Amino acid sequence: MAGVARQRREPRTDPPPQGKRDRAPRWAPDGQTLAFLSNRSGSWQVWSIALAGGEAWKRTDLPVDLDGLLWSPDGKWWAATAEVYADCPDLACTKKRDDEREKSGVQARLYDRLMVRHWVAWSEGKRSHVFAIPVEGARRATSRPATRASRPSSAAAPSTTSRLTAASSPLPATPTRTKP
Fold it and tell me: For residues 110-124, b (16+ Cβ closer than 10 Å) or e, as one string?
């Protein structure tokens, strides 16, 4: 993220290293901090930079990639989504299962129902969950599962009190049978 203030013409921070990207920039409610997702550290995590200047710094170090980012209205929490296995009790379990899958070398996939591919994404047996991440002490996250989401939804919003987060996702069509 470069040049966050209009008053200064020079960049406030260096762009991400070659081959790395920044995305999903979001201003803090007080307008003094810009949070964004970046893969500068090798995985998609929350980074931030102060409007006053300085370098961007990594704010989360969770074992899975984050996707989608929103500030709570009080500026104390972020809502972010991550793809996790629904039967895993924590993020470390999802990371472990992903690592095992990658090490196995098996490229085959078995699907027992359609739709297995939607646009550009394959179903990997994961679901998108919304996580509440405290801005201070952002190394931990509490899960707020999104209902049957297949991809993160941009239609998520924290309440004005920052105590609740609403998220929407398309539900799969339920087949109906009619008697002839």
Answer: eeeeeeeeeeeeeee
Check: CB of residue 109 under 8 Å from CB of residue 92.
Answer: no
Q: What is the DSSP letter of 95?
A: H
Domain contains 174: no
Among residues 16, 116, 131, the alpha carbon closest in space to that of 25 is found at 16
- Is 158 within a domain? no
**Percent of the chain topping pLDDT 90:** 37
Q: Which residues form the domain of 112? A: 22-151
Q: With 60 as the cut, is the pLDDT of residue 87 above it?
A: yes
Total domains in the chain come to 1
Does the pTM exceed 0.90?
no
CA distances from 47 to 23, 83, 87, 167, 180 (A): 10, 19, 29, 23, 58
- Report phi then psi at 40, rounded to 5: -55, -35
Q: Average pLDDT, whole number, for the chain?
A: 75
pLDDT tens, 102-135?
Answer: 898 887 777 666 665 566 666 677 888 888 889 9
Alpha-carbon dihedral 169, 126, 151, 153, rounded to 10 degrees:
50
